[in-house]
Write a structure and sequence with these properties.
About 5% of the residues lie in helices and about 50% in strands. It is mainly β and about 110 residues long. The protein has one domain. Strands 1-2-3-4-5-6-7 form a 7-stranded antiparallel beta sheet. The longest helix is centred in the middle third of the chain and has 4 residues. It is elongated and about 60 Å long.
């Protein structure tokens, strides 16, 4: 994950361990509010679910001085398919290194 102000970019790379080999591989950027709420509008879920017109959206929350992240993924319903595929997932991630210091240029520098 990379973050600058209200923009965050995530790299997703998940692989299944079951009989059916599936994966979620995508890079997505989204907005982060001042309270640490995250919103990603689109993740390509086809390689994971096989559903062509059912991408994931993700919403979540940074906590503990941005050292932890909780994300909820949910398929976006397609208006073109009457019996649409749906799925939900959630994940929690914890940073293993401290947050880097701010290197922003200030007026005093």
């Amino acid at each position: 994950m990379m973050r600058e102000s209200t923009l965050a970019t995530f790299v997703f790379e998940f692989k299944s361990t079951g009989k059916r080999r599936t994966q979620l591989r995508d890079v997505a950027s989204g907005a982060v509010t001042g309270l640490g709420q995250v919103s990603l509008a689109y993740l390509d879920a086809h390689a994971l679910s096989g559903a062509v017109q059912s991408p994931f959206k993700a919403t979540g929350q940074f906590t503990s001085d941005e050292q932890e992240l909780s994300l909820n993924l949910e398929t976006v319903p397609s208006p073109h398919i009457s019996d649409n595929f749906s799925a939900r997932a959630s994940l929690r991630a914890t940073a293993i290194t401290p947050r880097p210091p701010s290197r922003a240029v200030t007026v005093d520098q």
